[in-house]
């Protein structure tokens, strides 16, 4: 497959070469189209200075592939090449081969289209253009005005001695091509964007040539070729070049110039002037298809849009009367509905805003119709513990503590005698008393201090005896904590009854009533005696009972 591709390429090259030979044999002339930029010493002092000399290295050796216009090696007027090459104002060299339509600025020039016809020389097989009086734009450009026709030759005949010629083109390299030149003043040839003929400066006719085989070109490839010629001084203008290069064009601009830029027939300030001071007028692009007068295709850009904006905080508006640009500060949008407030305008980045939701308890970048979204308990639980929220904790947000916080659900109260805890199975709070120190003695009274949580203990105080004549003491049962009374024997009771019979003793019933009883010692327990007590004195006597006077009865 690859071999067949190479064979096809070879056949195509042979066909093209045969066609090229036939074209060369039949083509008697070649017409090169280009642009002449009419110059005037009034606007560009690099024309008609004192005589100079041939100066090599005046321009850079590589052509700018975008502009396809040569550039000086130095913009310093004191540089040796600029002094020798008579570049009085190096900064104006840029207008040798580029349009400057501003009549009020240095370097002002007038583009004029031109065609050069090269005749075929069958003996040498080359095309030649030769003109020893090369004055192609006499009475044109600036010299349309008779007052501008100031420069004359040695016979005092007027000519236009101040112009530069630019031809941008292409060619198919087939091998064996050459190019020769003889003339004055500046002449530069670039092939494949490289300087191959360098005859810069003000000089008499000089010659140079180039053999394209020495340039390392590849046969069958198309390369750019660019010619630049200037006439800068009286009193001669000569040009001749010979070549067998078959020059072609990528395109013709609407002025009919090969690879032209349209400036040879369109002047932005005159052709495209719409008399509106608030527009920037521009010629159409070179490849525009023109079917009616050129002004119909001109581009008119509002002036405020064509100027660079160094501060986007201001809008530019052109004053239609003065043509000046007025600046007005922009109004930044009200984004309060998005919880944003304006911080003013930055000249580079525009309106600046900051969030009003900058509290630690507000969700970042979340706004609900102008109101910042507050961190809820669920949000805080998620933020602090993820998916493992603690049911015995309460989640909340406190901006004074830096945001979300986590607290125990069952908080201890101010009463330190109570213990609060949480049931981890259901999250319910439990409340218990602080355990007593002597919990087994119910007759020990323990009181908890709610401030300290400490117990103070004392014995249980049972109530006073219900009847001092009945009970000896009131006491407490340790296991039950119940108070009880111990009865006092009756003969030990003195309830204060007034007993006149001294043979009786005081006695109280359970109801607390006096019920005197005989003194127990009156009865000596002997059945053979009669016991007697004197109620007045209380004297007790015991006499033998009559039944016991008979001894047998005893």
From TrEMBL:
GO cellular component: extracellular region
Family matches, as Pfam families: PA14
PROSITE patterns the record matches: PA14
This protein's record includes keyword Signal: yes
InterPro entries, per database record: Fibro_Slime, PA14/GLEYA, PA14_dom, Prespore-cell_inducing_factor
KW Transport (keyword) present: no
Transmembrane segments: none
Swiss-Prot/TrEMBL keywords: Glycoprotein, Signal
Domain PA14: 119-261
Family indicated by similarity: Belongs to the prespore-cell-inducing factor family.
Family annotation (PANTHER family): PROTEIN PSIB-RELATED (PTHR31137:SF8), PROTEIN PSIB-RELATED-RELATED (PTHR31137)
Entry protein name: PA14 domain-containing protein
Species annotation: Dictyostelium purpureum (Slime mold)
């Amino acid at each position: 497959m690859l071999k067949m591709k190479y064979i096809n390429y070879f056949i195509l090259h042979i066909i093209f070469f045969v066609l090229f030979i036939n074209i060369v044999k039949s083509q008697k002339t070649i017409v090169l189209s280009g642009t002449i930029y009419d110059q005037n010493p009034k606007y560009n002092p690099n024309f008609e200075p004192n005589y100079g000399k041939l100066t090599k290295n005046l321009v850079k050796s590589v052509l700018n592939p975008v502009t396809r216009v040569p550039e000086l090696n130095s913009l310093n007027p004191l540089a040796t090449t600029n002094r020798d090459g008579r570049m009085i104002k190096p900064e104006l060299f840029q207008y040798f081969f580029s349009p400057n339509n501003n009549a009020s600025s240095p370097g002002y020039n007038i583009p004029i289209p031109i065609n050069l016809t090269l005749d075929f020389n069958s003996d040498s097989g080359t095309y030649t253009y030769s003109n020893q009086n090369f004055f192609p734009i006499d009475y044109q450009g600036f010299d349309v005005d008779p007052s501008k026709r100031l420069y004359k030759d040695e016979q005092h005949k007027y000519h236009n001695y101040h112009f530069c010629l630019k031809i941008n083109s292409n060619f198919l390299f087939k091998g064996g091509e050459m190019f020769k030149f003889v003339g004055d003043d500046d002449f530069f040839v670039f092939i494949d964007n490289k300087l191959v003929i360098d005859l810069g400066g003000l000089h008499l006719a000089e010659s140079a040539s180039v053999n394209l085989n020495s340039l390392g070109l590849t046969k069958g490839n198309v390369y750019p070729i660019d010619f630049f010629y200037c006439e800068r001084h009286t009193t001669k203008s000569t040009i001749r070049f010979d070549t067998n290069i078959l020059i072609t064009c990528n395109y013709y601009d609407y002025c009919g110039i090969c690879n032209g830029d349209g400036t040879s027939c369109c002047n932005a300030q005159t052709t495209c002037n719409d008399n509106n001071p608030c527009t920037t007028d521009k010629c159409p692009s070179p490849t525009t298809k023109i079917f009616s007068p050129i002004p119909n295709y001109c581009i008119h850009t509002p002036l405020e849009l064509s100027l660079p904006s160094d501060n986007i905080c201001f809008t530019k508006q052109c004053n239609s009367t003065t043509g000046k640009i007025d600046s007005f500060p922009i109004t930044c949008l009200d984004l309060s509905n998005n919880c944003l407030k304006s911080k003013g305008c930055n000249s580079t980045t525009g309106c600046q805003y900051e969030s009003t939701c900058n509290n630690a308890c507000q969700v970042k970048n979340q706004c609900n119709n102008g109101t910042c979204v507050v961190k809820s308990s669920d949000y805080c639980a998620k933020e602090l513990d993820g998916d493992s929220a603690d049911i015995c904790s309460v989640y909340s947000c406190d901006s004074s503590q830096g945001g979300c916080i986590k607290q125990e659900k069952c908080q201890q109260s101010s009463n330190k005698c109570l213990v609060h805890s949480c049931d981890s199975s259901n999250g319910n709070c439990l409340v218990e008393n602080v355990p007593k120190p002597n919990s087994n003695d119910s007759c020990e009274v323990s009181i908890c201090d709610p401030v300290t949580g400490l117990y103070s203990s004392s014995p249980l105080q049972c109530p006073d005896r219900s009847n001092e004549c009945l009970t000896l003491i009131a006491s407490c049962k340790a296991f039950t904590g119940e108070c009880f009374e111990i009865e006092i024997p009756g003969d030990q009771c003195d309830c204060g009854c007034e007993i006149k019979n001294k043979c009786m003793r005081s006695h109280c019933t359970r109801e607390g009533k006096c019920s005197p009883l005989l003194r127990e010692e009156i009865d000596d327990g002997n059945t053979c005696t009669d016991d007697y007590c004197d109620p007045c004195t209380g004297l007790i006597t015991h006499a033998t009972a009559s039944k016991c006077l008979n001894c047998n009865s005893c």
